[in-house]
Amino acid sequence: MDLMNAVAARAGIDYQWVNVSYDKVLAGVASCQYDIGCSSIFIMEGRKKVMLFSDPINSGGQVITVRQDNADIKGKAYLAGKTVAA
């Protein structure tokens, strides 16, 4: 939010924040309900076909985090039948 606040201030743009669940951000941008989506949105080829992306401001990837004493889960294949939070 701080980044978008700074960009809007520098550009002299009036805006309104709309807080929606992550799954609605991309659908809202794709359907022109929102002008900008600002979140941890991965740039994917399919998304590039319907949206324009800025240069990435950070790089991320997907990781699995488990308790330090959990030696059972060593990768995504080990998640079958488990309860996962995201």
Keywords summarizing the entry:
single chain; mainly alpha; 3 helices; 86 residues
Order of helices and strands: HHH
Radius of gyration: 17 Å
Gross geometry: elongated
Report the uncertain regions: none
Largest sheet: none
Continuous helix count = 3
Q: Assign the structural class, choosing from mainly alpha, mainly beta, alpha/beta, alpha+beta, or little secondary structure.
A: mainly alpha
Compute the separation of the termini in Å: 20 Å
The residue-averaged pLDDT reads: 87
Q: Estimate what percentage of residues fall within beta strands.
A: under 5%
Helix content: 25-40%
Count of distinct strands:
0
Summarize the structure.
The chain is mainly alpha-helical. The protein has helices at residues 2-11, 22-30, 45-48.
Structure characterization notes:
The protein has 86 residues and is mostly helical. It has a domain at 2-48. The chain contains three helices and no strands.
